[in-house]
Specification:
The protein is an all-alpha fold and 188 residues long. It is built from seven helices and no strands. It has one domain.
Length: 188
């Protein structure tokens, strides 16, 4: 039971960590899904704990950020949660309980790409006529998504997502692996 409490606490801290971030999409929420998916042993808790943490963070954001409440339960909300669920699966399948760093890095990048593809597909479907409903329109939506929030200091939403997932996943899994080695008694 101790392990589920520890991992749940890390997932919640990662989820709430996005409240302190000021750079769009450079946040630890993807790491929360990867961490829970990789390290929680219960098939159901792998999803329940990260989704509860994400939803609590969304509720807090809807109170403290102007306009965020309109996002809750919008069509984009559901594509984000779908992509988040797939991130949990990626954490489970690509990282697993050992949390090897090369697997963590691969899962961090893969989950960012999957998140980008799903959420931008959702934007294309619910684009309110912004993009034509054909293959060219979908590609136009993806191209616009790659450039969204581009400025001089930071890349884009997609670049920030990749960098955030890589950075926070490296830190979270690295610290947790260190904690396991130092504070978990070895079986002789």
């Amino acid at each position: 039971m101790r392990k589920i409490g520890e991992i749940s606490a890390v997932v919640m801290l990662l989820s709430l960590g996005r409240l302190a971030m000021t750079i769009p999409n450079l946040e630890p929420i993807g790491t929360a899904a990867l961490f829970g998916g990789a390290l929680l042993s219960s098939r159901w808790m792998k999803f329940v704990i990260p989704f509860v943490a994400l939803f609590i963070g969304d509720l807090v954001l809807s109170v403290i950020r102007d306009g965020y409440a309109a996002h809750l339960f919008s069509p984009s909300f559901f594509t984000i949660y779908l992509a988040f669920g797939l991130t949990v699966i990626i954490g489970n399948r690509m990282i697993g309980a050992e949390g090897r760093m090369k697997n963590v890095l691969g899962a961090a990048v893969t989950s960012s790409v999957v998140f980008f593809l799903i959420t931008n597909f959702g934007s294309w479907i619910d684009g309110h006529g912004l993009y034509p409903m054909n293959f060219a329109g979908l590609m136009e939506c993806y191209a616009a998504g790659l450039l969204f929030y581009k400025n001089e200091l930071f890349g884009s939403f997609f670049f920030n997502s990749v960098m955030g997932n890589v950075f926070f996943s490296t830190v979270a899994f690295g610290l947790y692996n260190y904690y396991q080695k130092v504070f978990t008694p070895s079986v002789a």
